[in-house]
């Protein structure tokens, strides 16, 4: 297995190189001037030229890419044209918020989608199956921005059950930063009040972001389990007198797990990099908003940094999913 992991990590380097090259070419193909976007329309030509020279934008594109790759090999993502901070520092600030939101959304999707999909498969053709299919249809068709506004209006404005945008209330003192995840930092600081406040702020954006994932997971779980339940070995297990719970837990779910692992991996990667609307509506300071602002301001180094992080996240998630296959299917070997 170690050799397989090392080979995949080596291939991952080529993937990230391809991602960096594609992001560089696409961003520099835009007919726009990053210097004018950073300094404004009232900037003089001397100021624009000074900005280009300072940030290396006056060099030929192959030279710019060579300089960028040289820094990247040293672990330096460069400096943001907009914030003038190191992109690594910016991502270290914004990425934990997105990771925390993504984990909350995936947890909601798993807690709702898996049991509902299992029950729908077991109650095939009955009322519960119909309700699960309606949930899957509505969850997959409802726009995220509409669901976010509706959730805020109902549960925050009208009922007052849950807090509004942000990660903490204005009167809450943020815990010392260790991981960047407020819930984890509150646990490490042994501050239950801040922990509860952070969890309450996580509920609405987590539910909104995870609604589509829960719907998709419900549909995929139902489909995969129905296919497995029709196999001969399931009928044989039932004929031998095995209890229904044992048949489902030991035989059916284990064999239906592989497509579900693939779906979960894809969902995690997409949620980690595609939470722009949710982060914007809930004022969640994550990399989605950072990437959007950087793209609007033509901050090419920041856009490339976010793209590389997204490519790395997808690659690592796919590797973990492939490794998890062996735990569910003994026929899979990495030797």
Radius of gyration computed on alpha carbons: 24 Å
Characterize the main sheet: none
Task: Report the principal-axis shape.
Answer: globular
Overall pLDDT score: 86
Uncertain residue segments: none
CATH topology description of the largest domain: MetI-like fold
- CATH homologous superfamily identity of the largest domain: MetI-like
- Reading off the top of the CATH hierarchy, the class of the largest domain is best stated as Mainly Alpha
Beta-strand level of the residues, as a percent range? under 5%
Number of helices: 14
Helix content: over 70%
CATH architectural name of the largest domain: Orthogonal Bundle
For the record, the count of structural domains works out to 2
Query: What's the count of strands?
Result: 0
Write a concise synopsis of the structure shown.
This protein is mainly alpha-helical.
Provide an overview of this structure.
The chain is mainly alpha-helical and 335 residues long. The protein folds into two domains: 2-73, no CATH class; 93-328, MetI-like fold (Orthogonal Bundle). 75% of the residues lie in helices and 0% in strands. It is built from 14 helices and no strands. Helix 5 (87-122) packs antiparallel against helix 11, helix 8 packs across helix 9 and helix 11 packs antiparallel against helix 14. It is globular, with a radius of gyration of 24 Å. One of its GO terms (cellular component) is plasma membrane. Keywords: Cell membrane, Membrane, Transmembrane, Transmembrane helix, Transport.
């Amino acid at each position: 297995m170690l050799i397989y992991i090392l080979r995949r990590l080596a291939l991952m380097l080529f993937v990230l190189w391809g991602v960096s090259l594609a992001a560089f070419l696409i961003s520099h193909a835009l007919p726009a001037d990053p210097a004018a976007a950073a300094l404004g329309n009232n900037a003089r030509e001397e100021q624009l030229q000074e900005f280009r020279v300072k940030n290396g934008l006056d060099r030929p594109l192959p030279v710019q890419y060579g300089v960028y790759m040289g820094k990247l090999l040293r672990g330096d993502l460069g400096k943001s044209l907009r914030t003038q901070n190191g992109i690594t520092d910016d991502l270290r600030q914004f990425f934990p918020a997105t990771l925390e939101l993504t984990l909350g959304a995936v947890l909601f999707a798993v807690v709702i989608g898996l049991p509902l999909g299992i029950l729908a498969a077991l109650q095939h053709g009955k009322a519960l199956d119909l309700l699960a299919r309606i949930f899957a249809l509505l969850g997959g068709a409802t726009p995220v921005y509409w669901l976010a506004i509706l959730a805020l209006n109902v549960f925050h404005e009208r009922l007052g059950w849950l807090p509004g945008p942000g990660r903490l209330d204005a009167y809450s003192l943020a815990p010392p930063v260790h991981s960047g995840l407020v819930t984890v930092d509150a646990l490490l600081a042994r501050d239950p009040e801040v922990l509860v406040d952070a969890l309450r702020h996580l509920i609405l954006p987590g539910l909104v972001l995870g609604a589509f994932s829960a719907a998709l997971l419900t549909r995929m779980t139902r489909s995969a389990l129905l296919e497995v339940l029709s196999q001969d070995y399931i009928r044989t297990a039932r004929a031998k007198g095995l209890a229904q719970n044992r048949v489902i837990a030991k035989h059916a779910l284990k064999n239906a797990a592989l497509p579900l692992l693939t779906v979960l991996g894809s969902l995690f990667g997409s949620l980690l990099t595609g939470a722009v609307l949710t982060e914007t509506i809930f004022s969640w300071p994550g990399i989605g908003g950072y990437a959007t602002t950087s793209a609007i301001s033509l901050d090419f180094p920041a856009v490339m940094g976010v793209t590389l992080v997204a490519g790395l996240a997808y690659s690592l998630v796919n590797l973990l999913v492939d490794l998890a296959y062996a735990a569910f299917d003994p026929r899979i070997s990495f030797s």
